Amino acid sequence: MSEQDDTQPERQKIVRVAGSRRARLTPVPGSDPAPEAPPKRERRTPRGAKGPNDDQLFRDVPPHY
Q1: What does the alpha-carbon distance between residue 9 and residue 31 come to, in Å, rounded to a whole number?
Q2: What is the dihedral sign for C-alpha 9, 10, 16, 17?
Q3: What backbone torsions phi and psi does residue 24 show, to the nearest 5 degrees?
Q4: Is the dihedral of CA 25, 15, 39, 58 positive or negative?
Q5: Which of 2, 24, 3 is nearest to 13 (CA)?
């Protein structure tokens, strides 16, 4: 018996990511690896009019305990 038969489909490979706890899998052959939804950073939409103290609230840093 050979190590890889022609009847078995190609399998995904495990790729280790440096500095990460989780490994990644290579995309399935024949699939589209691009995500359908954009990342959360790009999905941000304005939530309405700015209030009078919004700029100050975004500049404020909470105290460290």
Answers
A1: 14
A2: negative
A3: -115, 155
A4: positive
A5: 24
pTM of the predicted model as reported, rounded to 2 decimal places: 0.35
Q: What is the DSSP letter of 54?
A: H
Per-residue pLDDT tens for 9-59?
Answer: 778 899 999 998 999 888 888 888 777 776 666 555 667 778 888 888 888
The residues near 25 (Cβ < 8 Å, ≥ 6 apart) are 12, 13, 14, 15
DSSP assignment letter at 55: H
13 in Cβ contact with 26 (< 8 Å): yes
At 22 the three-state DSSP class reads coil
CB 29 within 8 A of CB 10: yes
Tell me if 14 sits within 8 A of 22, measured CB to CB. no
